[in-house]
Amino acid sequence: MNIQFANDLQVDVRDNVPLAEYTTFRLGGACRCLISCRTPEELEQVIARLVDEHLTFVLIGGGSNLVVSDYGVDCVVVRYLTEKPIIERTSDDLTVSGSTLLDDLARYAIEQGLEGLHTTHGIPGTVGGAVVGNAGAFGKQVGDVLKSVILVSPKGFKRKVSPPELEFTYRNSILKKTGDIVVSATFALRPGNRDELFKQREEILNLRREKHPDLNTHPCAGSFFRNIEPTSKAEKRQAAGWFLDQAGGKNLRHGGAVIFEKHANIIVKSAGCTSQDVYELHLKMAELAKKAFGLNLEREVRFVGKFAGVEAKEIIW
Ligand SMILES: Cc1cc2nc3c(=O)[nH]c(=O)nc-3n(C[C@H](O)[C@H](O)[C@H](O)COP(=O)(O)OP(=O)(O)OC[C@H]3O[C@@H](n4cnc5c(N)ncnc54)[C@H](O)[C@@H]3O)c2cc1C
Q1: Interacting residues of 127 by C-beta distance below 8 A, sequence separation 6+
Q2: Is the pLDDT of residue 156 over 80?
Q3: I need a labelling partner for 290 at 20 to 30 A (CA). Which of 12, 141, 158, 188 fits?
Q4: CATH 3.90.78.10 for domain 214-304
């Protein structure tokens, strides 16, 4: 793709970039062009230019909740991620760029003696990705402490919204449908005991190390399906992994896509794995849960691009 349209922008622009390097699954073909933005200013400039040029694009953060097609993505990909956290404190509120890593924010909060984001310690990906998917753990999610968000629409319109407009539910928000981009977010936190917060962080990180795959040895995108909503107020949400495990899901595989030995709801990449293998394996898991328990599992991980056997109208779905 001719990338001259972005020549004068102060951002990294490259054509024909393999996306496997930019997802935690380490899978997927190339995109036509990859534009990397770190700051809100860079992002807004890039979106405005893409709108002017009538270019279709998809936005990614840490790529920790995605499976990119083996054929790649036939459009521009904008990556919004910064290694250097962009965070500002006002009273007990923290305002952070959508490009900042969620774990960097969680750590900064406790360094500042602020409580409220502790369950997000160790969750991969960016603040933007976390807001879109209402990321969380241990029954709490980012939407619980969010105060406001600055969004830019795919057409380049900027606005500030409050949480009710984002229609948060478990691992979901309206942003998955609208495609609006999280430029920055403000979280309302409360003072806490710094030493206890650090102790809690260590405990949570240890727990995650025990239960979750190490991305260096077991590339993946985290839990594939959402947990099951309770059928009454008295019940808690039930782990999709428990049902899959009971049904013998850990023995499933397709090509190089296998189930993580410690967690039946996580697909990991082994030798020779393709994105299509992951797609096929997730169908087998859904079928197993349906047969064994009559459950219709809902996918949490998103697919990007074309997969054999799917009539997807959207690029990201
Ligand atoms: C080992 C492992 C453990 C995990 N554990 C958890 C967990 O405990 N809890 C949990 O909730 N999740 C977990 N996840 C899933 C993942 O980390 C979260 O979904 C994360 O919030 C995704 O953020 P991201 O930046 O990587 O988003 P990406 O994967 O890059 O994108 C995901 C979606 O968000 C959109 N998006 C990304 N950034 C923005 C933005 N700035 N504005 C608008 N849209 C955007 C993308 O378009 C896409 O639709 C885990 C994943 C892994 C690999």
Answers
A1: 96, 97, 98, 99, 100, 101, 102, 105, 142, 182, 185
A2: yes
A3: 141
A4: yes
